[in-house]
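Hi there. Long-time user, first ticket. I'm pasting a complex I've been working with (about 428 residues overall). I'd like to know whether the download I got is complete or cut off, because the file seemed smaller than I expected. Thanks.
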Amino acid sequence: MILSTSVIEREQALKRAKIYIPITLFCMLFGWVYERYSFGVYSNYMIYAFVFPFIGGMIFWLLIGTSKKKFYFNKIFIKCHSASIATFTVGFIFKGVLDIYGTTSDLCYVYWIAGVIFVSVAVISYLY
Amino acid sequence: MGKFWRNHRFGIIYGVLLAAFTTYALLDVFVITHRYKSFDNTQQINDRNMNDKNVTEKKITETEYKDGNITISLATHRMYDTDIYVADVKISSPDNLKTALAQNTYGRNVKDYTSVIAKENNAILAINGDFYGAQSQGYVIRNGVLYRSSVKGNEDLVIYADGTFGIIEESKISAEELLNAGAEQVLSFGPALIKNSQISVTEKDEVGKAMSSNPRTAIGLIDDLHYVFVVSDGRTSSSKGLSLYQLAQFMETLGVETAYNLDGGGSSTMYFNGNIINNPTTDGRTIKERSVSDIVYIGY
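Hi, the file is complete. Here it is re-exported in full:
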């Protein structure tokens, strides 16, 4: 099967970068509010959940959009890239909630495994 | 609509799946009850009631309990802007120091108030335990029964059949070995506050990700069959709460040889003769007990 690849135009990339701005801000605000009401119990997972939409989403597409080099991405890359960011972000927030409550769950591994699978598929689809 | 669906169907479907899984995961952790092992303790309770009736010359006041086998005296201390409740306990038999599980069931999300579990077990004095049900790993041995042997890496409190205390690291000894060595109770929370009469935490030590001031629960051994049960208030305008180091310093003033930190925060509760002694709170505004998995208690 030949995957359709298309060049990502500057406007498209910047549009995608903009989508991640409110998501990043929401994660920052959510983490800040949650920490504020957790009686001094903190979780790095909760604090840094915003890093995925910020670096993986906003900064990534900003760099693509402002680069002079042309990038070719197929639909699988774009979908898996977005899905990996969503999975890691939700996984970090979930783990943060558990940390702050003082509990653990093996279900956290589902997020990490799913996230890694999406990243791997995205990278493979880009390379091949 | 058709074009929007075609362009975004992967995102929509995956978003719904992610939300559904997260909802399930949260319910699994906080709500869904997993009962792994239940037991009927009616006979035990009946035996205890008989024993209790056989105990004569009981002296019970708001701050004291005394019979031929058990002596408990309560005192309230004020240190570090915090009310600290201390129950000094002397027993004639190690069998009087016990633990109990909520709903007489070992499981996850099987919880009840400390006071309810205490009443169900005819406890004279009780404090919350290690909230084993909030963790999926860590040793659980209660009243000589091994419930969980997976290693979490905690420093555990072992209460042996003769009533002595030991502090062990899960990575260095298995739960089965502890059972064979005569462990009656193993509480997996920690850390140990005092070992060999020396403070064993530093000012930087904390429980997991907790910061300094919180309600706390601890248990200490002074000498043979002589214990202290300690609970501090916290998170309120009248009581700030304690850091682990402050709790250890306080335990040291009581002259304990070994002291161990149990689950704190909203779980911290002390029950004595049908009453809750401290001011348990999770949010600092409402004084209300939090449901827990287990208690440590004195009774027959």
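A couple of notes from our side: The mean pLDDT of chain B is 92. Residues 124 and 273 of chain B are 5 Å apart (CA to CA).
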